[in-house]
Design goal:
Number of domains: 1
Distance between the termini: 48 Å
Shape: globular
Radius of gyration: 18 Å
Structural class: alpha/beta
CATH architecture: 3-Layer(aba) Sandwich
Mean pLDDT: 88
Number of strands: 7
């Protein structure tokens, strides 16, 4: 893949606001053939699509879809519409996610625990499964799958237990998928697993006060993710100190009681 997404079809979940919108803006700026926006908020989605269409000035097709990715049926229906109306994406950015800052026993099994696991862990699997066959079949055409996890999936996180569990599942699935593709000779499909620490985005607003890691700006995260995605980099940890602390925790594990 070149150093831009020029001519590619890019699908982004959680695309109406925050970093999802920033990814979409980047794709439009680089001349993507189509930018496919998935979000469950119709008003925010329409507003973002209007702004992107103005910036694209006809050079990029902007296709918004109202989708609740917590619903497997909705994912399947939206994916079929995308294939029919736009075409299979070359790049899928599994960006959408939810988090609740609370002790585990304060989580509701349905609205909190189940939905967090559905959106953060299962939905990226369902979405990727919808479009992966075309990526595998596209011999000679490079494709990208970008899975936005979190450093909370690599460590214990008090008051973030369900979120941490969902991101841990995403990390292991993402890396396993990458290795499967390599093993079976589908090297044209690159999987990038992204593990940022807390950002200044609204999703983490309640958790920042307890974090010992400096918050990352959404703009910085998006820029680094974009570079890693284009390069086909397997894993992106942000900031770099996360890798050091992870290694230290591994070394200290035998001495814990």
């Amino acid at each position: 893949m070149t150093r831009t997404v020029s001519g590619a079809r890019v699908l982004i979940t959680g695309a109406a606001v925050g970093m999802g919108r920033l990814y979409a803006e980047r794709a439009v700026a680089e001349g993507a053939e189509a930018v496919i926006l998935w979000d469950r908020d119709p008003a925010a989605l329409a507003a973002t699509a209007a702004i992107l269409n103005e910036r694209a000035d006809g050079r990029t097709r902007v296709s918004p879809y109202v989708v609740d990715i917590g619903d497997l049926g909705a994912i399947a229906q939206a994916a079929q519409r995308v294939r029919t109306e736009v075409g299979d994406p070359d790049i899928v950015v599994n960006n959408a996610g939810i988090v609740r800052d609370a002790f585990f026993w304060d989580h509701d099994n349905g609205d909190d625990t189940r939905r967090t696991m559905q959106i953060n862990a299962l939905a990226p699997m369902y979405i990727t499964r919808e479009f992966l066959p075309a990526m595998i079949g596209g011999v000679g055409r490079e494709s990208r799958i970008v899975n936005i996890a979190a450093t909370d999936g690599m460590r214990s996180s008090p008051r973030m237990s369900v979120y941490a569990a969902s991101k841990a599942a995403m990390i292991e699935w993402s890396e396993s998928l990458r290795r499967e593709l390599v093993q079976e000779g589908h090297g044209q499909v690159k999987v990038t697993t992204v593990c940022p620490a807390n950002t200044t985005a609204g999703l983490f607003e309640g958790a920042l006060a307890r974090s010992l890691t400096p918050a990352l700006t959404p703009e910085h995260v998006v820029d680094q993710v974009w570079r890693a995605m284009l390069a086909g980099r397997p894993l992106l940890l942000m900031p770099w100190t996360v890798a050091v602390s992870s290694a230290l925790r591994t070394l200290a594990a035998p001495f814990r009681r």
